[in-house]
Amino acid sequence: MADKELEELTNKLAQTKVDIVNELSFKGRGLKLNKKEDAKEIVEEIEKFQNLTALRLEGNTVGVEAAEAIAGALAKHPEFSRARWSDMFTGRLKTEIPAALKHLGAAIIRAGAGLVELDLSDNAFGPTGVDGLVELLKSKSAYALKELRLNNNGLGIGGGKMLAQCLLDCHKSSTEAGTPLALKTFISGRNRLENDGAQALAKAFKAIGTLEEIAMPQNGINPPGISALAEAFENNPKLRILNLNDNTFTEKGADIMAKVLVKLTNLEVINFGDCLIRTRGAKAIAEALAPGHEKLRELILSGNEIRKDGASAVAESVENKAHLTLLDLDANQLGEEGIELVRGTLETINKLDVLGSLSGDEGSDDEDEDEDDEEDVTQDGSEEKDLQDDDEEGEVINDPGFIIQGKGISPSKQASTASTTLDIADEMNNLKLS
Predict the structure, then answer these.
(1) Alpha carbon of 211 to those of 147, 265, 342: distances in Å?
(2) What's the Cα-to-Cα distance from 310 to each of 281, 363, 397, rounded to whole Å?
(3) SS (H, E, C) 37-94
(4) Is-contact 415 218, C-beta < 8 A?
(5) What would the pLDDT profile of 331-356 be if each residue is shown by its tens digit?
(6) 367-373 long-range contacts, CB within 8 A, separation 24+
(7) Residue 409 needs a FRET pair 20 to 30 A away by CA distance; which of 1, 2, 9, 336 works?
(8) Chain center to CA of 210
(9) In whole angstroms, how far apart are CA 245 and each of 156, 190, 251, 304, 343?
(10) How many Cα atoms are found within 13 Å in the side-chain-facing hemisphere of 246?
């Protein structure tokens, strides 16, 4: 190796920072922690753990008193940085969860810890749960936050707005302190944010500007919300992963998003499956992606009522994508002729191996290519379906068991199946509430 190459390698190694994670895990223990005494094992393990940077509690259920005891031990660890607390409130009342979260958040603040990761996914705490996070997310302990995962929490519009305001406040105060919030990952799927929640979060995303991964599938967002998000994405040029699966773009939203995609050249994964972009939307996205986006690995446009002309345009757009491993166009309306057209195009550009299954295609060759992209959408751009926020107070609501894993279900159908399952689960919860 030449001296110059050796010097460059040495410099790169010197600049490399290794994030050492010393994790204490109680994952999947099924512990029912109600009283202080129930948490004795966890408290003792936390107190004697040296250099504790991560605590994993998912698969247990933590009450207020137990959370307070755990918090007391956690407050002794200023090095703590990763709260991996998904699925840890199963069977808890909505009134319990904010109090438990406040105890844990206060402990992090008291320790002077700098939180890098906060994962509270699969805890159905609704808008009231965000109350328990406000102090933490506005504190100095959140200035270093890089990953925020709040998937399947039932936030609703109200919770989405509160969360957005917390992020804005944190960004403002951290910037004034000279250490601006530089969030990289934001996950908030299946939260029924709808347009108002999405628009509020878009303001936060636009202010932050450092996001690399955004996942907001199944949130009942349609063109007004999509438009606000697209504007925010433009201000986050480092975006690598973008997942808006199972929202409602329509042709209007797809056109707005396409204009922004042109500028997001670092994208590696685009998931716009089940977004009703239809043929004209597919053409707009294809045109946006065609000139560049050499880093693209996955392009998912399944379940969008795309017909052969749109699918063909998409196929042509991936010619220069050397890193592409998946093009998903399943569950559209190509018909046999369209399927052959797509396959022929991809074969010509040596990309046939990236094409996902088309076994769920819903088209036929005699379908008319003319279409009305607004036929299933109301005048304000919203879908003709009821998207209610479940905001009942004081009863048992946490039951992540209804979440499906998608085994045996094609990727294009998973999101719609999950939506149905969510509705069934809501009805079951309403029965509990009654």
Answers:
(1) 10, 14, 33
(2) 8, 13, 43
(3) HHHHHHHHHHHHCCCCCEEECCCCEECHHHHHHHHHHHCCCCCCCEEECCCCECCCEC
(4) yes
(5) 999 999 999 999 999 999 999 999 99
(6) 367/307, 367/333, 367/335, 369/279, 369/307, 369/308, 369/309, 371/278, 371/279, 371/280, 371/305, 371/307, 373/250, 373/251, 373/252, 373/276, 373/278, 373/280, 373/281
(7) 336
(8) 15
(9) 17, 10, 15, 10, 24
(10) 20
Reduce the DSSP state of residue 241 to 3 states and report it.
strand
State the Cα torsion 96-99-100-104 to the nearest 10°: 170
CA distance 225 to 223: 5
C-alpha span between 233 and 277 (Å, rounded): 18
- Burial label, 161 (beta-carbon count in 10 A; 0-12, 13-18, 19+): buried
**The pLDDT of residue 414 is above 90:** no
Gyration radius of the chain's alpha carbons: 23
Q: Report whether 117 contacts 85 (CB < 8 A).
A: no
Type of residue found at 129: G
Contact 202, 231 (CB under 8 A): yes
| Three-state SS at 333 | strand
Residue type, 146: K
Can you give the pTM of this predicted structure?
0.85
Reference 277, options 203, 413, 371, 188; nearest CA is: 371
Dump pLDDT digits (tens) for 372-388: 444 444 434 444 333 33
